[in-house]
Write a structure and sequence with these properties.
Elements (H helix, E strand, L loop, with lengths): L14 H4 L5 H26 L7 H21 L3 H4 L3 H28 L6 H32 L7 H7 L9 H19 L7 H33 L15 H10 L9 H9 L7
Length: about 280
């Protein structure tokens, strides 16, 4: 389905690489920084688990801990320049998994453990988990379908409306609206479900359960675009960097450079070739 789309159809996804925000060096630094956040969140999970009665909470947290330890080792390894310069694609895969683990999985586990502190039964906790996960699948599916439709319409081509909007993302909050709308819709259904089963929803409940679930939906909404960018790194050379840290040129940039170089006819002398290429005109006497 995506093979029929040209490189220009994905141009907007290349912007983080053009700006340098997702250069191999910056991704390495980000992975190293995420190590500390991941460790903090895991410690919070075990801390709140002491006061929770969520069924099988320690088994779930132990599995998450083992996965996080393996991921941490990989994050540390791919923070080393010698390693990430030779395998940028694997480094980006680790970044996707690490960002989803820190900003999606961990908040969800914290929300579930915190929900277990409430005076509710185990059956309700399992039902609440299923509802959150089902809505999460719907949010991810909606984001993936939306992304595919936009790609087919050419919304991510260079100089398109979305491309210009992404370039001004820091000044234009409208770029975040799709993620906010989708996650907000998922959160609304979650709140409706809770309001029918939980009598009192206070500020502590909002911060410990509702807010982490909202983060889970928002980050999950960005996953299809992360995976699409990874697809582009495997398919297009222009989404990768050379060993010196320079981004490979976009195909359109290469074509523009070729147009600027004059065509030299066969059989022309070396001196005439240099004059034609450099544009130097020597007056003949």
């Amino acid at each position: 389905m995506l093979k029929n789309l040209s490189e220009n159809s994905f141009a907007t996804l290349r912007l983080p690489f053009e700006s340098g925000k997702q250069s191999p060096m910056n991704i390495g630094l980000l992975n190293f920084f995420l190590l500390f956040i991941q460790a903090l969140l895991i410690s919070m999970e075990y801390h709140f688990a002491q006061f929770s009665h969520y069924p099988g909470r320690y088994k779930i947290l132990d599995i998450h801990l083992r996965i996080s330890i393996i991921l941490s080792i990989l994050m540390l390894i791919y923070s080393i320049p010698f390693v990430y310069k030779r395998s940028q694609k694997i480094q980006y895969i680790i970044l996707i998994v690490a960002s989803q683990n820190v900003a999606s999985v961990a908040p969800l586990l914290l929300a579930l453990v915190s929900m277990g502190e409430r005076d509710v039964g185990s059956e309700f906790l399992i039902l609440f988990t299923k509802v959150v996960l089902i809505i999460g699948v719907l949010v991810f599916s909606a984001a993936a379908i939306r992304l595919y439709i936009l790609l087919k319409k050419g919304a991510f081509k260079r100089n398109s409306k979305k491309d210009i909007q992404r370039r001004m993302m820091e000044k234009n909050m409208m770029a975040f609206m799709p993620a906010l709308v989708a996650s907000g819709t998922g959160l609304s259904f979650t709140i409706i479900f809770l309001s029918r089963h939980v009598r009192i929803i206070d500020i502590d409940f909002f911060m410990s359960v509702i807010f982490p679930v909202l983060i889970f939906y928002v980050v999950l909404f960005t996953l299809p675009e992360q995976l699409m960018t990874l697809y582009c790194k495997f398919r297009f050379k222009s989404f990768n960097f050379d060993k010196e840290g320079n981004l490979y040129p976009f195909s359109e940039e290469i074509e523009e450079r070729k147009k600027k170089i004059p065509v030299v006819e066969a059989g022309t002398s070396y001196a005439d070739k240099r004059r034609k290429i450099t544009g130097i005109v020597i007056r003949q006497v």
